[in-house]
């Protein structure tokens, strides 16, 4: 539906045929006005209304007040195969009947799974943390999970809150899956992106082959061990430098003191250079 204004005494309905257990969705916003009366009926209920009678059963019977453009969402599973009618009503006697309302919305059926519009998996070889980007859409329902599979094993996951992602035209999501390749052996993997909605509709991207080829420095544990060794070695050199400095201060013989002092200061300068190099090396390793 495009923007639609329903005046007092008027109504608007949308009809669709559904087989049993198919899901009908209605998403709408009240752009202007106090609210709208909403319900769903089958063909028998529609005939009753057209003949001036009250239908035996109304589904999703609710009065929606205007709430600053809030998106209202209705999901209804058909109880039997029939033509179903979605009503937006301002007829006399229903809530909010005395004022006009302008609404925008969409009514349809959810019979297909999400659509994967775009994925990007780096060409490789893959190392460290690999970013896999995606863009997915579901016209009917919302998307609640996107996964990365490697050899049919889930290796990265993103989940979503439906109320934060769905809109009038459905759900469109863009994001990044982070895959820590260091937890897997260096080898060739079959990768694909898999998308789910709450109705167990599943869509898979085309499979691609990628190679993991992590080296020694790509593993965080190795970098931590080497960095810890550098810190320990640096601390040892610092203690040695301080000990040599104290040795100069307690030596009373002038010539001997000068010899130790000259040698020690050369050692201290050399140690400071080594410490600087080690410091720069550990910073690079940790990046």
Question: Could you characterize the architecture of this molecule?
Answer:
The chain has 287 residues and is of the alpha+beta class. The chain has 3 domains: 4-110, Jelly Rolls (Sandwich), CATH 2.60.120.680; 115-215, Immunoglobulin-like, CATH 2.60.40.10; 219-286. 26% of the residues lie in helices and 41% in strands. It is built from 4 helices and 17 strands. The strands form 4 sheets. Strands 11, 12, 15, 16 and 17 form a 5-stranded antiparallel sheet that branches. Strands 1-8-3-6 form a 4-stranded antiparallel sheet, with no helix packed on it. Strand 15 (188-196) and strand 16 (202-204) form a beta hairpin. Helix 3 runs antiparallel to helix 4. The two termini are 53 Å apart. The model has no long low-confidence stretch (mean pLDDT 82).
Throw out a few tags for this protein:
3 domains, 17 strands, four-stranded antiparallel β-sheet, Jelly Rolls, alpha+beta, five-stranded antiparallel β-sheet, 287 residues, 26% helix, Immunoglobulin-like, 4 helices, single chain
CATH C-level class of the largest domain is Mainly Beta
CATH topology of the largest domain: Jelly Rolls
| Count of domains | 3
Q: Estimate what percentage of residues fall within beta strands.
A: 35-45%
* CATH H level, superfamily name of the largest domain: GOLD domain
């Amino acid at each position: 539906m495009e923007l639609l204004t329903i005046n007092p005494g008027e109504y608007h309905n949308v009809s669709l045929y559904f087989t049993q257990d198919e899901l009908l969705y209605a998403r709408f916003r009240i752009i202007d006005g106090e609210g709208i009366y909403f319900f769903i009926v089958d063909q028998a209920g529609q005939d009753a209304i057209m003949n001036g009678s009250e239908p035996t059963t109304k589904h999703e019977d609710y009065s929606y007040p205007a709430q600053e453009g809030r998106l209202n969402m209705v999901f209804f599973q058909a109880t039997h195969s029939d033509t179903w009618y979605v009503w937006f009503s301002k007829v006399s006697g229903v809530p909010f009947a005395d004022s006009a309302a302008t609404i925008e919305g969409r009514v349809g059926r959810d019979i297909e799974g999400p659509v994967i519009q775009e994925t990007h998996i780096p060409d490789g070889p893959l190392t460290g943390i690999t970013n896999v980007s995606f863009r997915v859409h579901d016209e009917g329902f919302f998307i609640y999970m996107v996964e990365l599979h490697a050899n049919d094993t889930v290796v990265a996951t993103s989940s979503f809150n439906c109320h934060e992602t769905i809109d009038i035209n459905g759900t469109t999501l863009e994001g990044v899956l982070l895959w820590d390749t260091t937890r897997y052996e260096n080898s060739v993997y079959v990768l694909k992106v898999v998308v789910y909605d709450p109705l167990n509709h599943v869509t898979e991207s085309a499979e691609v082959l990628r190679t993991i080829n992590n080296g020694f420095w790509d593993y965080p544990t190795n970098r931590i061990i080497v960095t810890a060794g550098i810190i320990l070695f640096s601390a040892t050199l610092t203690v040695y430098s301080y000990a040599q400095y104290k040795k100069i201060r307690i030596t009373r013989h002038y010539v001997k003191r000068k010899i130790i002092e000259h040698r020690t200061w050369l050692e201290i300068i050399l140690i400071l250079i080594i410490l600087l190099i080690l410091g720069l090396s550990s910073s690079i390793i940790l990046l």
